[in-house]
Amino acid sequence: MIKTNPRVTITVEGHQEPLILELYHDKAPMTVDNFIKLANSKYYEGSIFHRVIANFMIQGGMGASGVQPIEGEFAENGFPENNILHERGVISMARTQNPNSATTQFFIVHKNSPHLDGKYAAFGKMLDGWAILDAIATTSTDRFDRPIKDVVISEITVETFA
Fold first, then answer.
1. Buried (b) or exposed (e) across 56-85, using 16+ Cβ within 10 A?
2. Of 102, 127, 129, 139, which one's alpha carbon is 20 to 30 angstroms from that of 15?
3. Contact (CB, 8 A) for 118 and 79
């Protein structure tokens, strides 16, 4: 039996092509399960990429509070099997200084960011949509790194191949 990793399609308003990502359940199972649950519940629809830093990352997924935090699956938090590097196109969970504070926010790396390796729960990688990633990452932002014009996630779908 061939096992296929879950595939995520992120559709962004104003862009013809979506961001396509593959998730690695074998590296970060709690993180992948949490992301899929949120995506399937339509949690992300209408949310924005609220923090955008060119040559670093695009961050989205901020929503209502009350979502239960998950344990961070990365090397500095005792998960050595998650060896996904924060290279261009990797999706990872955002968090506070508390290593177990990830909830709904995620980021996609625009340019290689090795200073994040082992410190954040990376859980997948882009397969397609590179021009969209570049367009979002280079959009005009204010002094708080928020895009001047909202970059809205219209839909996130997940194919689990179950």
1. bbbbbbbbeeebeebebbbeebebeebebe
2. 102
3. no
**7-159: CATH number:** 2.40.100.10
Q: What is the pLDDT of residue 65?
A: 62
Task: Report the SS3 class of residue 49.
Answer: strand
Give the mean model confidence (pLDDT) for residues 9-29.
Answer: 96
Burial class (CB in 10 A: 0-12, 13-18, 19+), 140: exposed
Pairing of strands 57-60, 122-128: unpaired
Could you report the per-residue pLDDT of 34-66, keeping only the tens digit for each? 999 999 999 999 999 999 999 999 999 987 666
**SS3 state of residue 70:** strand
Q: Which neighbouring-strand residues pair with 159?
A: 7
> Is 24 within 8 Å of 33 (Cβ atoms)?
no
Q: In angstroms, how far is CA 7 from the centroid of its own chain? A: 13
> Which pTM value belongs to this model?
0.95
**Three-state DSSP class for 36?**
helix
